[in-house]
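Reminder: ligand-aware prediction takes two inputs, not one.
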Amino acid sequence: MRRESKYFQKLGQELIKAAKQQDQYDLDTINLIAPASPTPMKYFYNLPLKHNAIAEGLLENRPYAGVEGFNRIERIAAEAACKLFGAEHANVQPHSVSQANQAVYQALLNYGDKVLAMRFDAGGHLTHGMSRNFSGIFYNFNFYGVDENGWLDYEEIERKALEFKPKLIVCGASSYPRIIEFDKLAKISRRVGACLMADLSHPAGLIVAKRFPQPFPHCDVVTLTLDKTMLGPHGGIVLCKSDLSQKIDKAIHPGVQSSVPLRRIYQMAQCLIDCSLPWFNDYINQVIRNIKIFEQKFNQYPGLVVTGGSDTHLMVLNTFKVFGLTGMEAEKLLESLGILTNRQVIPGEILKPYVASGIRLGTSWITARGYSEEETGFIADIILQNLADPTNTSLQMESKDNLKKLLKIKRKNDVWCE
Ligand SMILES: Cc1ncc(COP(=O)(O)O)c(C=O)c1O
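Here is what comes back for the chain with pyridoxal-5'-phosphate:
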């Protein structure tokens, strides 16, 4: 018994040490992982809500006593989400976007129904029909890709839709760097009698700042999260037209989940209200100015930037074609300097997905930490120099030092540390 308590004491110490190390690591690295963004500390500390209440059931319809406060908070979050995204109905309960997508499929489809979605190598997500994901296991997915330059080809999507006759068309992606023309996809969906769903986890913040097309009224259902370009907590949101609201709500509860922590709903409401303020538009505009700097710098190497650039917060580089480095090698080389990216399959991928031909980078995190064009250009130069000369150890040491100096500078508009 005594030995056990020592064991757990040691585990507790280890836990604190690991958390502190991770915190320090986050401060000591340049994070260019596209979905990464530092959630402002104000969403975690000094909450007026002290208790971690959990409640089961849908808004206004819970099989519990004492839930009026819970309803009020969730109502505010749902109302703010509708207002920001122009939706008629919002459900903020899903624990994640994977779960939100699961609920949408459950609401709109029967087992084995046909769905047309974006292929994984073109930028689609696991939950858009990957064979080993629940989506690919339970439903009959077929895919559209991108043209030889990496762009969505709406005529090709229409041809596929007419041939396959899906019940649902899914758009939205994890690594597609261009805008999505929802109006065109809505026309195709109507022509084949399908519903249109958009998974907008990535460009959510750009939609709020009106730097990306508005999904409504074109889409029937939208799923998204606040933890990528909205600088908020993790979790999923489903937005839809009012005629689908009951089906969607029931698919979330009791369909795929039971209870929800109120603190997360509170933090989501806080984030949604915050993102309606002018600072958020300024933030997104800077995210885009920073990606344009990447575009300019990386385009010094023809063929490096998939689609030749980006309209969003992210871009994909074909490192294998230009530098002979797999995505895995490029990711590890940059990680050794203190720059975080992720290996990324590219359209028409020829390598195994775990190795991949490219890397994906985004500007959400660095912008939130207060970096503007000058620092972004500096980082891009370091990336290019090292990818072009991957065995130059003195260059690596110099780059590491320069990045450390950059990280030491405190910025007044750093949302993370404010
Ligand atoms: C397009 C897209 N959909 C869904 C998800 C899954 O989100 P979650 O991790 O919240 O389940 C991601 C995550 O990166 C994503 O990029």
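The mean pLDDT is 96. The chain has two domains: 54-274, 278-408. We will return to this case in the review session.
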